[in-house]
Hints:
The chain is built from 16 helices and 12 strands. It is an alpha/beta fold.
Amino acid sequence: MKYAVILYDGMADYPVDELGGKTPMMCAEKPVLDGLAGKGRIGLVNTATEGFKQGSDVANLTVLGYDPRESYSGRSPLEALSIGVDMRDTDVALRCNLVSLSGEDNYEDKTMLDYSGGDISTEEAKILIDAVQQRFGNDVFSFFAGVQYRHCLIVANGTTDLGNMTPPHDISGKVVGEYLSTSENAKQLIRMMKDSYELLNNHPLNLERVKAGKLPANSIWLWGEGTKPNLKPFYEKYGLNGSIISAVDLLKGIGIGTKMSVPDVEGATGYIDTNFEGKANKAIEELDGGKDFVYVHFEAPDECGHRREVQNKIRSIELIDERVLPIIIKGLEKYDDYKILVLPDHPTPIVTATHARDPVPFMMYHRKDEKDGKINFNEETAKNSGVFIEYGPDLMKEFLQK
């Protein structure tokens, strides 16, 4: 038996006025997925956990069958694993975004123009993070470059009691002052964020970006604090050898933490310009190489939701249908039996531009399913199925039942 999970990050949504009260899932042309849904089983699953913010960290752990109350130690430590940081038990990791802020004199008065630093490239970002490390790095604070706008700060002998360290994608277009932690424990971190503006806004790389009509990645933004993770290996949990295929450090870190394979795919970006075929082909390559389970993660729908890009969100769903699912299905057909699970980890509604805690639609297909038909797989049809999995980790257990 072979198992494939196709994770459309943030795909679920609320009705959008621009779409006549429909969601991107409802409007997307996705004949392959709708065909699988007509033959398989659809429903809703709860991927939110009481007491935890609804992010891709908690939600993807839940989809993989891990209870965050038992396995979650913070978002950034998972990303640190992917970057290759060897955390000590006394270290605290924080996500360090490169963001674009407006030019008001007081930091508190600046507006969050772009949580992704104007789509800064990984190569450009490393130059800026190296400058940050040179200015602020010491025996306590160490900055590590990651992918695109996503980076990491390690605090030696740190604390996670930092007050409200707000995710920057939650405050797009908002003045940042009221979202800065006032905790005494966060005082040094907030000071570094403020001081980083002067360093980065005047950096030659950002001056060149402005000349080219691009937003400058002119501040660091710290959030997602956590301690060294302790995850049970996926093989020990389920008896299956697995791989996670993703462009983002968070998912790669989950893969490393659960002792799964995390192969790189050239051209994988975490956005709508990613190498869709490359990720699909890598998934089949992993299965053909002896893996039992692949988890193929696509960040694009989530990024489009955060940016309120309605048409790009629709298109990202369609591109997975056109350029990923046919390759996955064809590659699986050589095996006597297989299952496919398709779902988002959480909603990222266009109207709010941030994550929501609503249950998400899932589609589970088994090669031996005898039904035949087609259904528009979306939030509403999943709800109308009457199938609801309240405890999120149960979905993976059900999926892996032979």
